[in-house]
Amino acid sequence: MSNGYMDKVLEVNLNDRTIKHSKIETDIARKYLGGKGYSTYLLYEILKGYEAEGISPRDIDPLGEENVMIFATGPATGAAGFPEAGRYHVMTLRSPQTGSIGSANSGGKWGPYLKFAGFDIVIIKGRAEKPVYLELKDGSVEIKDASDLWGKTTFDTTKILTERMDGKSSVACIGPAGENLVLFANIMNDKHRAAGRTGVGAVMGSKNLKALVVSGNHKVEIAKPDEFREVSKAALEKIKSNPVTSEGLPKFGTAVLLNIINNAGALPFENWQTGYNENADMISGETMAEKYLSKNSYCWGCAIGCGRVTSVKKGAYHIKYSEGPEYESIWALGNSTGVMDMEAVIKANHLCDEMGLDTITMGSTIAAAMELNEKGFIPEEDLQGAMLEFGNASAMVEMVWRTAYKGGFGKYLALGSKRLTEIYGSPELSMSVKGLEMPAYDPRGIKGMGLNYATSNRGGCHVTGYTVSPEILGLPEKIDPLTPDGKAQWVKVFQDFTCVVNSSVNCLFSTFALGVDDYASLLSAVTGWKMEASDILAIGERIYNLERMIINKYGFGARKDTLPPRLLKEPMPEGAAKGQVVELDMMKKDYYSLRGWILRFRRQSPPIKTDVLPRERRVTG
Prior knowledge:
The chain is an alpha+beta fold. The protein has 3 domains: 9-215, 4-Layer Sandwich (Aldehyde Ferredoxin Oxidoreductase,  A, domain 1), CATH 3.60.9.10; 251-436, Aldehyde Ferredoxin Oxidoreductase Protein, subunit A, domain 2 (Orthogonal Bundle), CATH 1.10.569; 443-512 and 532-619, Aldehyde Ferredoxin Oxidoreductase Protein, subunit A, domain 3. 39% of the residues lie in helices and 13% in strands. The chain contains 24 helices and 19 strands. The strands form 5 sheets. The protein has a 6-stranded mixed sheet, sandwiched between helices. Strand 14 and strand 15 form a beta hairpin. It is globular. Mean pLDDT is 94; it is low at 601-621.
């Protein structure tokens, strides 16, 4: 098998250092593509094996050697000419942060370089006795000693391993946060690109796996080169003519959204107490471009260039070179904590990259701690001098590195906001779903995002079904963000389509300009399989249903498809969404009906075949 695939799955067992090679299964690839989809299928099969051995899914320790992690590319990854095809997907059997499935996605060049090294998928099992890293090069793999790398930052690790390689290479690694098992640790690649959610870096740290370095000269073959040239050219023209992908993102990066979302009354401020901040422009994309931007940065094969290269020329937060921060990071470290100092936000974001921390959870957890402290829930002796008050820039920056090393109050922040607020008796102050902190869109002002957050399989996730696109940006058409009517259909379609994008694997930003028909044409030309738009959505639905079956086994059913009480009961106090709450129950009922899910409250979902067909009835509770 070729045509978009290297046809090689690598399995490494760190317990006994055994290495196995197998091929991509064509019938599975046609149903699940690669990336997230193929990984979900593999994890489901592994879970069935555990159950056959009498091991309950709920007894699997996310930080134990029985947890499994998968790095996966898809048929688009590394295919020259496929728009925005520079990403890879990481999944783990369980997330240490949420207890559900682990899932993260990253850009840069590591994904394509894994393909060029000759591999589609890498499965990691077991736990090494001492720190190791994997070197994958031109179809071969070596397990190497990483004792000298343990304790080093992601930047230093990347530099050292890049210098050791002969030729072009890319490094994915963990920093001190992953080593110290911070529950929301990232995997960082190419220094500033993050597989950033659900604590996949902590899983890597629990396995004593410091890094994977990839290099090679393989090329991705295309089934129909002439047809592919035509459809990729047409797709690229759409990207170049779309106002978001040709103007907004290149000029201001993802932070172009900050003022837009604030004006819509949906930019969470000071731990979601409101959705409007009159001073938000101080940390906007426009402000960053004017004062701190050096140049744009690009992932492999990218035509958009939303990445930011930034610097702070002097002062307490001086940095000669950094990348970012992106919109979510600016919001989490800035607006959510009340810090209106762009230089402090740039510094904190830089530290998160260096330490290997998820910026969304990091900022959200600091914000939750600030509200806990201001309301008197945290004893002074626990704070150990930390001045956790909304707007305190120096405290926000200090808490980042303290979290990575679990120093002082950082040991509590390292647990994430859900556990932190539970410790101090106010779990309602954790702005999370299924244990994963929600990103920068208050659903009281964007109702579809509320339904998406609640039903997202991995928890409070915006990229699972980004209805901000039609609700705020008007793509592919403008709909009213303040009504719950019709949102179930939009959320389902976006979730299914996004599963395909993450299984292809390429950048979600391509979907601002490209639709299901475009993906059907592109993937048909790459793989040689005839695909229609209906096939694309069927694949996405199949993946989403199977992922739901996995999280059902961990106890994540209908009761967990909810939102924090603040969003359901406290009307937005000001801004364009003033007076709004989220009418979740109504939207959720419509959504379950569209998905064909049956509410059946039981301890564990019944077994299901893995060749799940869309529109079959699913158990969701």
